[in-house]
Specification:
Length: 277
């Protein structure tokens, strides 16, 4: 029995090590490649002998990559704030208020998130053009809400249903309105779920490519996924591989940092809805 347990633990450790290696290696390879000089880019060694920041310097010097980063931050931050604000109110209405056809409404919300982006691209383009938002960050905020709002609403409904009804009854006796009830009483109790959902929405908006490519034209209004895709076609780079790796590292590290910072809330939020109680 002891030998079986040792073999099981060894197999578990090997599997975990293999999973970590497969997950971390692409990031380590990108970091190592971004620090290599142009002559050493195709050196098979993971880490260069003489690390250099020339690709990072040229990335910000030769194109408005700093503005692209700011654009992505503004778009993703706005999408998360609007998604969570609207989804919290929608989740309260769908989970706590007696409504006919509530299940049908939830299915319609879930179905909206299943449409591929290319299927709604033409309609979204017509809407954004009619609103005068083409080549503006507002177009990306509006488009990305279509991706994140159904998901955040569906997830938060699940957590909203688990809150005790006594809280709502006590708030009603004290004359508290719906906005105060949702944002002052329910929100602190749902903070792990809100943090996990908000982070997933932020990642989706941060990495969104098709809408960002279709609804922006000038380089100053691009977000980082589109800016990275256009590096390879720029004549300013004799060999764009190092610049691509540098841009990928800059875009990826903030997401890694956010996940590490909020990992406890993410785990708590994602598992909180698995059981009742």
């Amino acid at each position: 029995m002891t030998a079986v347990r040792i073999a099981g633990r060894a197999g578990y450790a090997l599997g975990a090590a293999a999973l970590v290696a497969a997950s971390v290696f692409p990031l380590l390879y990108a970091i190592g490649s971004s620090l290599k000089s142009k002559d050493a880019l195709f050196d098979p060694r993971l880490w260069p002998d003489a690390p250099t920041l020339q690709h990072y310097v040229s990335l910000f010097r030769d194109q408005p990559f700093g503005q692209n980063l700011l654009n992505s931050l503004l778009v993703a931050g706005s999408v998360v704030a609007l998604s969570l604000g609207v989804a919290l109110m929608a989740a309260w209405a769908l989970a706590r208020v007696p409504l006919r056809g509530r299940g049908l409404m939830l299915m319609a919300i879930l179905s909206a998130s299943m449409f591929p982006q290319v299927a709604v691209l033409a309609g979204m383009f017509e809407l954004i053009t009619a609103l005068g938002l083409y080549d503006r960050l507002g177009a990306l905020v509006l488009a990305d809400l279509m991706l994140t709002l159904p998901f955040t609403t569906w997830v938060l409904v699940t957590f909203m249903r688990q809150l005790p009804k006594e809280l709502e009854e006590a708030a009603a006796m004290d004359g508290i309105g719906p906005l105060t009830l949702v944002f002052r009483i329910f929100l602190p109790l749902m903070w792990p779920a809100v943090a996990a959902t908000g982070l997933l929405a932020f990642i989706a908006a941060w990495n969104e490519f098709l809408f960002a490519l279709s609804f922006t034209l000038s380089m100053e209004e691009r977000t980082v996924p589109v800016a990275i895709a256009l590096i390879s076609s720029s004549s300013k780079y004799e060999l764009p591989w190092g610049a691509l790796m540098a841009a990928s590292v800059i875009v990826t590290l903030p997401l890694v940092a956010l996940v590490l910072m909020f990992q406890r809330l993410i785990v708590s939020g994602l598992t909180q809805g698995a059981v009742k109680g």
